[in-house]
Prior knowledge:
alpha+beta, Yope Regulator, Chain: A, six-stranded antiparallel beta sheet
Amino acid sequence: MSKSVYSVVLSDDVISEIDRLAYNLNTNRSNMINQILAEYVSYTTPEKRIKEVFDRIRSVFDGRDVFRLAPPSDTMMSFGSPLAYKYNPTVRYAVELYRDISGAVGELRVTLRSQNSTLLLYMMQFYKLWEETERHYIGDCDYSIDGGKLIRKLNLRLPPEELQSLSAVDLGDIIADYVSAFDSALKSFFYDTDSRMGAAERIDAIYRDYLHASGRII
């Protein structure tokens, strides 16, 4: 959706309330005004759709001890998950959604801030096993792996017309299912890091369960 600059005259008191609301919602003044006007004319903006997706992901993850959620921004939602390893490091997940979903709908970023070289090596091994498992079952995926960081594009394998009509709730469920499967596989990998074959078998089983349970693959 293209955007342009418009000149409007607004009351200082109105702007003050808009700024307060924007701050509470972790957004900016322009986007807040855009959202208010869009709601008034019953138009769903990309920003509103993204918020609805994040709200759905939050509702799925709420009540689980696995994820620690942070307040989302306009296009990014972040959460952490503790890892059963020395000093209980936290794996950071970030889901970024694109305003234009004609191609990829967004990307998942997984990071682990640590100076422990052994831990980072294990994370790399897991990333590679997960990537190999995905490629085996669903073909090529858009991956970027560098040190303790993984970036995966989120592509819905749907016809364009079905993608455009996909509800925010459905997209939230799809993303939540994928992240949950990824995190379960990661925890399973660290359950026994000494056996690569055993880890590969556990990851494979988790991924097959994910494919069987999920109606749509990302």
